[in-house]
């Protein structure tokens, strides 16, 4: 009598549909984590760029005001009691404020270029320009008083705003910073 047993059929080598779905699901979760992380890093980078621009702009304003040849009355540049865009030409905030002001020409000796806030949506302050106001009224209707104000945007709350920081209807945080 022979001792031979029937041969077992060889099992197909491969993955089942469930195993493939689990692997695809894990890969999708990992990709979403990477995408969210990269968006956060980009947002922080844009906010850091804004803070750097603001420091540069404020320094240019201070240098202009402290130069007796440029500012014999020890005032900031621009038209008094008028909100102005810090850009060479055009309008900003949907055409509400003039960018053809003397402010860009006055700051030309102190800034190589007028910085533009990083942004993605046309018509938003962060896309068009930084705003500057010097005067005796409250043009923004925020109860912040008179003086010289620089308005700048950020995507996240602004812990380093030395003025009034608030979130507007477009979801962006704006700092209304009084220049001293």
From TrEMBL:
<dbReference type="InterPro" id="IPR000983">
    <property type="entry name" value="Bac_GSPG_pilin"/>
</dbReference>
<dbReference type="InterPro" id="IPR012902">
    <property type="entry name" value="N_methyl_site"/>
</dbReference>
<protein>
    <recommendedName>
        <fullName>Type II secretion system protein GspG C-terminal domain-containing protein</fullName>
    </recommendedName>
</protein>
<dbReference type="Pfam" id="PF07963">
    <property type="entry name" value="N_methyl"/>
</dbReference>
<keyword id="KW-0488">Methylation</keyword>
<keyword id="KW-1133">Transmembrane helix</keyword>
<keyword id="KW-0472">Membrane</keyword>
<dbReference type="GO" id="GO:0015628">
    <property type="term" value="P:protein secretion by the type II secretion system"/>
</dbReference>
<keyword id="KW-0812">Transmembrane</keyword>
<dbReference type="InterPro" id="IPR045584">
    <property type="entry name" value="Pilin-like"/>
</dbReference>
<feature type="transmembrane region" description="Helical">
    <location>
        <begin position="20"/>
        <end position="41"/>
    </location>
</feature>
<dbReference type="GO" id="GO:0015627">
    <property type="term" value="C:type II protein secretion system complex"/>
</dbReference>
